[in-house]
Amino acid sequence: MESKYDIVPGKSTTSKFSLKFKPTPIVFHTKNGPPSPKKIKLSNGKADLLKPSNNSNSNFGIKSKISIQEQKRKLPVFQNRNKLLDLIKRHQTLIILGETGCGKTTQIPQYIYSARIQNNGRIAVTQPRRVAAISIATRVCQELGNGENVGDTVGYMVRFEDKSSKNTKILYLTDGMLLREAIVDNLLKQYTVIILDEAHERTIHTDVLFGIVKKAQKIRDERKLTPLKIIIMSATMDVDHFSKYFECKAVYLEGRAYPVNIFYTKTLQDDYQTACVATFFKIHRQAPPDEDVLIFLTGQEEIDAVVHQIRLLAKDPEVNGPPVRVYPLYASQPSSQQICVFQSVPENTRKVIVSTNIAETSITISGVKHVIDSGMVKVRSYHPTTGLDALKVQKISQEQAWQRTGRAGRVSEGNCYRIYTKFQFECLQKTTVPEIQRCNLSTVVLQLLALKIHAAHFDFMDKPPKDSIASAFEQLKMLGAIEDIDSGKLTELGSQMARFPLDPRFSKILLSAPNYGCLEEALTIIAILSGESIFLNPPAKREQVQALRQKFYSAYGDHIMLLNAFREYTNISQANRRSWCHEHYINIRNITYAHEVRMQLADICMKCQIPTSSCGSNMDQVRKCLVSGLFMNVAELHRDKNYITLDKRQIVSIHPSSCVHGQKPPCILFTEVVQTSKCYLRSLTTISIEWLQEIVPDYVRTRNIKIVD
Ligand code: CDP
Ligand code: MG
Q1: Ligand 1, residues 364, 368, 403: which to mutate, most atoms within 8 A of Cβ?
Q2: In whole angstroms, what is the distance from residue 47 CA to residue 43 CA?
Q3: In which domain of life is the source organism classified (predicted)?
Q4: Distance 479 CA to ligand 2 centre (A)
């Protein structure tokens, strides 16, 4: 049962960042009667249904003060504990499906552990996101309640952070990390149980792991080694497709989902961000304070802006409503901050979480009664024809819309406000395209080659497009990572590149740095690029920020500007860094993270015996070094107007946030592409086109690039 509502009558004229913005009343058009529960359709031809028994009441929220042990017993999965354990014991491979929040990720590994199914081995549980791996490991450690710390029996391992020890029996790790472990030992012998969680997300790494664990299981059987148990867990997915690929049984854990009223906007919304804020205040003024709100938006910048806006507006005396606590939630957050979303808030206070799609399935927050769905998501997608790997905000799929809706029906009946019309919903794609079919494959192809697997012959569940595989091989050849495309044999350089948890273009830069005497500088730039932006850009303080940042500016572009800022940061004493960041509008979390990443990368460089070096103020050396890995990401000025990429002749523009915007440098190298109405390049370095001839003559020849000055 659905209804339509007005967010703002007619077109929105309110400026996004105006502090004068007042939420406009929303008109609801509710049809009679409560809606029936909307269940995500599941092809359960092969799935056994495990029902929760009636005496369990999962109606608890984080706000109720029941003990952690009691909370565990009330999870729907608890009712099926013995049946599940029996199935896991009997089957070498098993698919477990269940509604988000029913307890799969936190409970099932604990059940396996206490039944000692893992024997002397370890249980690995993969997660697509680092923040989920960290927060869930922390939670499970608490649940075990034996006074241990994370890193003892329960640990986690994510890129650039390892909290595990010899004693770790349940290890939550990102799918990317397990893939890296497979490079060291392709039979993954330290694990006796591998749980591939959130399989429906179909991240590139999970998709590759499907093939790797399947093969490891088979070989371990053939060689009579310790058997490997594989469990695939997921919210909702195409069971037939999965059980055919794994040739195994599937069970479906029925959760307890309450009906959710769905509201669509009556008119098209051209500014979903403002519409989300307006909808929030509509709810805020009417709903009791203990009803939490979850807003789905696309990325850090947008989320930070909305969090700020809600905090400001909530204090406005004209807005009637209880006090609010607003929490941002996105993947790049430090775990300490992310854990806050689970904390209870004071009485008579409204909790609102503003999240990316991370709260769709990876992280469940109890107590949410209202969901506001912007209908948008930020994804990375690659077009082999344009050669560009772009971050793009795009519409979600219907499958995602239902997942988001479901978040409102966890505790009791809830509401979901869709910031799009019914018609727009019907036009959405039914399912999400797996990442492997839309991303640049060069990293994965290189990792597979390090495992001595040629991607063209790999047992993918869904094969990536031939073009994408071909273009990945071509890229690796250009980078000098493989000897030839047919054999895919790694060169010495290629084997070293595979040791870095980085895009091959970035690892090539680090490995080329000794030739330019600038390893220190290259490490800094690559480390910063591996995280989220270190610069804060509050729109209300634009001019002030620009003036302050002047001293970091470089005519050579954004990468050198990052380097300048980081150099100054490291020169500040530890004690003064926080206030320095505050003064300079530098995101302290992100710069601290870059600092940590830099140390890890330096460590790998040391293991690869790359001599350390610094080029001081000779920026030409750094710029040339960047060209050695990113020569495929170069664009030149065309007719004094647009830029054209040299590789595939695409028309692009410089993003207004770049420090060389408006200066029209003749030739630029870029590391980020943002696609909106136009294709924008962000994070650039100006280079001289002749350098290409000097640094990558083969590339210039094969691509027939004309070097004219
Ligand atoms: O994996 P699945 O979606 O089935 O659920 P889960 O992640 O195991 O979560 C089960 C319950 O634990 C949910 O109700 C969460 O709210 C709660 N939880 C929590 O309170 N704190 C965490 N850090 C993680 C989960
Ligand atoms: Mg889960």
Answers
A1: 364
A2: 8
A3: Eukaryota
A4: 38
